[in-house]
Design a protein that fits this description.
Elements (H helix, E strand, L loop, with lengths): L1 H17 L5 H13 L21 E4 L2 E6 L6 E3 L12 E3 L4 E3 L14 E3 L6 E2 L13 E3 L4 E4 L13 E3 L4 E5 L12 E3 L4 E3 L1 E2 L1 H6 L5 E3 L5 E3 L1 E2 L12
Parallel strand pairs: 2-4, 3-5, 4-6, 6-8, 7-9, 8-10, 9-11, 10-12, 11-13, 14-17
Antiparallel strand pairs: 1-2, 15-16
């Protein structure tokens, strides 16, 4: 009887050990994120000796990492390229930290990503072209960073986009008319950038600050509404 009890406990312990185990590649990507963002000084740290399923802010499902929420957790540093190896991610929320550097160039590998929330950081550089290939993306919050460059017309490929916030960055150039083709888009804030040219009335109405931009001298101005025939942005529930 004692042997059976011992065997049963061994089986239970083995099951608990492997339950929630993710692939080595995904675990390695998370470890790279931990070290790249000074994990030792996070508010809520990870015990790397324990199962990934116990790590704060990491959500797993069917032994796959599907979400990371480390918002307001004192992350500091650059996002590692290995973040793109977490190909099953549906949500990334790292807002209100001290992240710097550029977004990973391979981020477009996250084909299931629906939420990318990185606002209130110090991320710089241009948006990687691969980000426009994430057709599942619904919420893109990159406001209050130091991003620059143009917003590509390929944004129209993010056909599921519902909320786009690029507020308070250094984007420039023309606001792409491809935004008009995003029929699910119901929230948008592009103000406090350096966009120029004109914008449609439909897009201006989506922006709570009515497309207030900064000129080369840092003075605020409103983008002009173009006189072309208006197109209707359809919001689907």
């Amino acid at each position: 009887m004692k042997i059976l009890a011992t065997l049963f406990l061994a089986i239970v312990c083995t099951f608990q050990t492997f339950a929630g185990t993710v692939s080595d590649k995904e675990k390695d990507a998370l470890v790279k994120l931990y070290y790249a963002t000074n994990g030792a000084k996070w508010k809520k740290k990870w015990d790397l000796s324990l199962s990934v399923s116990t790590w704060y802010g990491v959500k797993t499902e069917n032994n796959k990492v599907i979400a990371i929420d480390l918002s307001d957790n004192n992350l500091e540093g650059n996002l590692p390229d290995e973040l793109a190896d977490l190909v099953n991610l549906v949500e990334i929320d790292l807002h209100k930290n001290k992240l710097k550097g550029e977004l990973p160039v391979n981020i477009g590998k996250l084909k299931h990503l629906e939420v990318l929330s990185l606002f209130d950081n110090e991320i710089q550089g241009q948006l990687p072209s691969s980000i426009y290939k994430i057709a599942t993306l619904k919420i893109l919050l990159l406001n209050n960073n130091k991003l620059s460059g143009n917003l590509s017309n390929e944004i129209m490929n993010c056909s599921s986009l519902e909320n786009l916030s690029l507020f308070d960055n250094n984007f420039e150039g023309i606001i792409p008319n491809g935004l008009e083709k995003l029929h699910h888009l119901s929230e948008m804030n592009l103000s406090y950038n350096k966009f120029k040219g004109t914008v449609s009335k439909n897009l201006a109405l989506l922006d709570p600050l009515n497309m207030t931009m900064f000129d080369e001298n840092g003075n605020p101005f409103l983008l002009e509404i173009n006189a072309e025939k208006e197109t209707t942005i359809v919001t689907e529930n």
